[in-house]
Amino acid sequence: MNRLHVYRLLRRNAKLAEKRHPALEQSTVAKVMLYIGAGLMMIYLIFLGSILGRVAAEEDMPVLLLVVLPFFLVLDFLFRFIGQQTPLVFVKPYLLMPVRAQHVIELYLLNQVLSSYNLLWLSLLLPYAYVCLVAGIPFWSVVGVVVGGLLMVMANAQWYLLVRTLVVRSVLWWALPLVVAAVTAAAVYLIIDADLLDAVADSYAADAVLIWVLALLALAALAGLLLLNLRLQQRFIVQELSREEKKPAAMGHVTQLTFLNRFGLAGEYLKLELKSIMRNKAIRGRVVMSLSLIVMLSLLISYTNVYDGKMLLNFWCYYCFALYGMTALTKVMGPEGNYIDLLMTQRENILLLLRAKYYFHVAILLVPLVIMLPAVISGKFTVMMMLAYLLLTSGLGYLVMFQLAVYNKQTLPLDAKLTGKNNVESGLQLIIELVGMFLPLLLVGLTLLLTDDATAYLIMALLGLTLTLTHTWWLRNIYNRMMKRKYQNLEGFHASRS
User: Fold this and answer.
1) Three-state DSSP string of 53-110
2) Which of 120, 175, 385, 496 has the fewest CB atoms inside 10 Å of its own CB, making it the most exposed?
């Protein structure tokens, strides 16, 4: 059996697995919403490509898009964390079959290079190319821009895969993308500051040469990252599945967290939340990632003018508070799915657990409050603004996100981050997540539009405070609805355990 035939069989199996998935009916709704989001993204990219094409045509500088594209690829890199998985989940079912793991990994990497998401970026490249062609820029220069841009997007997909594979091994690997992003930004700044683009723009021939040189560099980067990913995935998959762990020589110090004993059983659940973060890689990774992003955003807002617009400052101020909650509560009750049967043994155990989770997430809002103090000192944020968004997050934001506890029924593996099962979201869960992300911002936009800033922040603070003080009522409502679905949820938790 040649390699091409193996690829065809694996691709057909992947399609059949998707069609036969028990959650297909639920995920269809989610897919429709994702298609709508993709359509909106295409419209935005077409508009952006047309604008950039017009600027490039006016300046006789077709290489412009390839110079600014790395900044868009930084956002693309971050967006890929939402849905793109590592290939180890794809490889695992074939480990006991007469198929080489290398062939399965190669197919996955090939699918990532030719994925529809990568091709979506043609919505940016083709309008840019069309505007440049109409303006009289040479055909081969325009073709080079399209080819080079697409190769850069494909290389970025492999770069994301490499970074994600490394950061789950150690959080310190986050320094790698930060250093690369800083070096790239510095290089682009030096090119622009040295007026290199203006010098190249004086000659279409020199412009075409530069474009194709950048395309060849992107091709070389893509080939190098493909080979590196292939080697790393082959190495890490064996380590992940063998679960070879060094046993400690002796029992170390165990943190007791005795100050929480005064809260009774709710205090025990608070201990469980804290120890889950300290001991479990998957949960700890989300915490570190969220806090790192908050620190980065706080520094950007405090010491640069990137987000100096009024709506942008309000947008990021809210999300700095809401980011960790939206990340963690998306899978609320997922970690507890590993031992949900024990929680069901006593009445209202789940209610106390929900209250403990809520108190923990309210308390953790103090962390972004401290992190964002430089933005207050620099005058970007006001104290009233910070208080309003803290209360809006603890009230309205958490009220919406905790609704997911009723419908989440898939166990979240605590340590198996690379080969863990992919939790398929239902359409209703996705709608709740989107409402939690955008409803508070919609209210913020309306109040800021209809009133002055001070009044708007006061209204949001009062709304958030009211919902925060009434948390016992709406948490009990969530608990009662969970109990009506307990057998359905238990079945889902049992079926999705590793």
Assistant:
1) HHHHHHHCCCCHHHHHHHHHHHHHHHHHHHHCCCCHHHHHHHCCCCCCHHHHHHHHHH
2) 175
Cα Rg, the chain, nearest whole Å? 25
Chain centroid to CA 369: 22
> What is the residue-wise DSSP string for 261-314?
GGGHHHHHHHHHHHHHHHH-HHHHHHHHHHHHHHHHHHHHHHH-STT-SHHHHH
Q: Please give the residue that has the higher pLDDT: either 123 or 264.
A: 123
d(CA 135, CA 138): 9
Q: Which of 322, 470, 407 is nearest to 30 (CA)?
A: 407
pTM score, whole prediction = 0.62
Residues in CB range of 395: below 8 A, 6 or more apart: 463, 464, 465, 466, 467, 468
pLDDT per residue over 37-58, tens digit each? 778 788 888 988 888 888 888 8
Residue 16 in this model has a pLDDT that exceeds 60: yes
- pLDDT tens per residue across span 273-311: 777 777 776 677 677 777 777 777 777 777 777 667 777
Exposure string of 409-418, with b = 16+ CB inside 10 Å and e = fewer, is: bbbbbbebbb
Helix ranges (H only) for 135-203 are: 139-167, 175-193, 196-201
Burial of 6 (0-12, 13-18, 19+ CB in 10 A): middle
Q: Could you tell me which residues come within 8 angstroms of residue 443 by beta carbon, excluding any fewer than 6 positions away?
A: 392, 396, 460, 463
Q: Identify whether the C-beta of residue 390 lies closer than 8 Å to the C-beta of residue 465.
A: no
Give Cα 430 to chain centroid, integer Å: 14
Highest mean pLDDT among 165-169, 303-307, 455-459, 487-491: 455-459
Q: Is 379 left (phi over 0), alpha (psi -120 to 50) or beta?
A: left
Answer whether 123's CB lies under 8 Å from 42's CB.
Answer: yes
Provide the residue type at 230 as one letter: L
Which single residue is written with the structure tokens 């069609």? Answer: 19
